[in-house]
Amino acid sequence: MVDVPEVGARVSLRYRLPADEARPFTDVVGHVEQREPAVRVRTRRGDVVTIAREDVVAVRVVPEIPVRAGEIRNLEHAAALAWPGTEQQWLDGWLLRYGGGITRRANSAVPLHFTSHAEIAAVADWYAARGVPALVSAPDRLFRIPDGVPVDAENLFMTTDLALGEPKAVAVASRPDPAWLAVYERDVPVDVLTAVVDGEVAFGQLAGAAVGRVAVTEAPDGTRWAGVSAVHVAAAARRRGLARRLCEGLLIWAGHHGATRAYVQVVAENDAARRLYEAMGFTEHHRSRYVRAEDLL
């Protein structure tokens, strides 16, 4: 039997068609979503092809399609609107976000169209006036960090296409209630959690033990993105598949609210989270890291 690569791998797979077809074999290119008992491959358009294991004739791993800088810019734009803090300001091609100093993401500047170092100085002044460090969230290919400048918290942007599905048994609300906050455990203000610019946000709960957040925002190219974040499972309920079921429920909600693609941001060292999202069909899109504005001046 032909060996199928691990879930998440991009493959070109040849498989056998029914005997009454005009041709005996056909091919599909996409990411492996399931290996057993049947093989499932999701194409770039979001279609899922299910193939009986015994019908797989040949398979090879193929390189990921290179991500263009414009695609990174569009996704970073949508993601910045989805976690914008409680105060935002556009400064030329930068989006400045402030959330009371809680979470780096809500208190950092995203250089979507970097032009000069004068903007970095203005970013530093803007955050100094609010009494918090001036952090720059520097995405691959949109902002070059000079050699020797220290960076922190490398993040992976992982993406997948969305397909509409039947709603799952996940309770979804527009705001986090006390039960949601109790499971989440992190001391993030509700106004930071619920903030979104030109989009929709929802909070999911499952079995009273798993919680998460999803925000649907639109990129400049018109793509509606679903960003999953704030996923947490109570310690006593882990290793039961709750995180995956919760995320699937949130993404189905997002699909019914117009999202066609989804992303997550994962700290590069978080192997457990990476494995979870890879099993759900997410693949790496690009990386970003935080750098202090004062170190760039």
Itemize the secondary structure elements and their pairings.
Blueprint: E1 10-16, E2 25-34, E3 38-42, E4 48-52, E5 56-61, H1 69-82, E6 87-91, E7 94-98, E8 108-111, H2 117-128, E9 135-139, E10 152-161, E11 171-173, H3 178-184, H4 190-193, E12 199-206, E13 210-218, E14 224-233, H5 242-255, E15 261-267, H6 271-279, E16 283-292, H7 293-296
Parallel strand pairs: 8-9, 14-15
Antiparallel strand pairs: 1-2, 1-5, 2-3, 3-4, 6-7, 7-8, 9-16, 10-15, 10-16, 11-12, 12-13, 13-14
Discrete helix count: 7
- The ordered H/E elements are EEEEEHEEEHEEEHHEEEHEHEH
Radius of gyration: 21 Å
CATH topology of the largest domain, by name, is: Aminopeptidase
Largest sheet: 11 strands, mixed
| SSE-based structural type | alpha+beta
What is the helix fraction of residues, given as a range?
A: 10-25%
What coarse outline follows from CA principal-axis ratios? globular
User: What is the CATH class name of the largest domain?
Assistant: Alpha Beta
Please name the CATH architecture of the largest domain: 3-Layer(aba) Sandwich
Spans with pLDDT under 50 lasting ≥5 residues? none
Keywords: Acyltransferase, Transferase
GO molecular function: acyltransferase activity, transferring groups other than amino-acyl groups
Organism: Mycolicibacterium chubuense (strain NBB4) (Mycobacterium chubuense)
InterPro entries: Acyl_CoA_acyltransferase, GNAT_dom, Rv0428c-like_C, SH3_Rv0428c, YpeA/RimI_acetyltransf
